[in-house]
Amino acid sequence: MNYDLIIIGGGAAAFAAATKAMDLGKTALMFNSGLPLGGTCVNVGCMPTKHLLTVGDELFYAQRPRFKSLRNGSKSSFDFRAAVKEKDRMVSNARRSNYVNALKGMNGIDLVEEKAKFTGPGQVEAAGKVYEASKIIIAVGASTKPLPIPGLDTVAWLNNITALQLPKLPASMVVIGGGPLGLEFAQMFAHFGARVSVLEAMEQILPRHDPEIAAEVQRCLVEEGINIHTAVLVERAAERNGKKTVTFRKDGSSHELESDEILLAAGIRPNTSDLGLEKAGVRVDRNGFIQVNQYYQTDKPAIFAAGDCIGKMPLETVAAKEGALATENALTIPVRTLNYDHVPSAVFTNPQVASVGLTEQEEMRRFNTCLCKTIYMNVVPRAQAVNESRGAFKMVIHPRNYKVLGVHIAAPFAADLIHEATIAVKFGLTIDDIVDTVHVFPTFSEGIKRVAQAFTRDVSKMSCCVE
User: Fold this and answer.
1) What DSSP letter does each residue of 423-434 carry, written as one string?
2) What is the pTM of this model?
3) Rounded to 5 degrees, what are φ and ψ at 109?
4) β pairing state of 243-250 and 253-259
């Protein structure tokens, strides 16, 4: 059978590509290998980690109530193996309903569960058979990036896949990497009862986020007992007598941490090394990420790429959007693009972190000035009502027309709150538009309104009724 499109990959970008091809009345052949259908998100990423993070929250915070009337708390017995099995059942059900069954209902879309690699610009080979199509989408994703730490190759370290498969709860863990993945796993295992330390090479955790938001998150995590070390150089790792050690340097001094497990969460690398891209003439950067133009087109006009393997924004939602846009560009006219300034992201720690648009640093780079305001949770009436002291809201606006350029939140439910800000950024709303919009009282979403009001008044000395 001749296909209009070959899709290499089986994750979010690949499924979005298959769906778009079907919508356009085209035929496609999908190749999947490595992770089961659904890729990182449903199998070893978003879905299982958010499930286990919620389990940890239910366990941890029930024992530490915010209200004096509940001072005895509620201590539940915790079965780590049962939690992992429950997670596995959820993943299996989600994979079956959202991917396996969904694919069966896609007319004109076929699946080959084999690894595909290029044999030429328009050809791929899988299990000894050669396939051709007029257009090809590469959507192979990415995986944990190993680090050149001396001795690490002799240590059985964990990544996001193996950490979700542990047979028992470790008593202690060192997490190398203080980005979103590292912090989510750090808090998850800390809530389960492990002693957790985080090592981050940059000056702050969440290096790509606003410093004030990162600082608030660090304050909250440290208060929960997680040890965080920033601006460190990991010098070596070792394993002896059943224990793993990490030696790092900070402020000129050497320190050593001993733990049951080491989790590596310091970046990703694209799954492109064994695709035969050189035979197709597809260019990659020095880290292996596929180089594409704004239309997701490689140097070869008939070959497109999308998702984590192109290294734009490693988010499930972005991968899906890129997969759909790349396919539409491949099968019609290449004109569809994505404005990454309008894409929200979230970190599912507790409190959560969510962000959209420009940071203060980026506004300074673009405009050589910044009009920014930050408020903390103590000025949000809902927070006062429920004894919530964790969180901050920061807003970045255009220095001349006061349009909202970026919003950054650390708060409970930040991942849900960010969508009002996303609409504001995408459609060029001003702070007056935000303030003039009636919000439900009392809600955490009023934090966005409060930070908009902070540009024109002192919100710490303001009635909650002021519009």
Assistant:
1) HHHHTT-BHHHH
2) 0.96
3) -115, 120
4) antiparallel
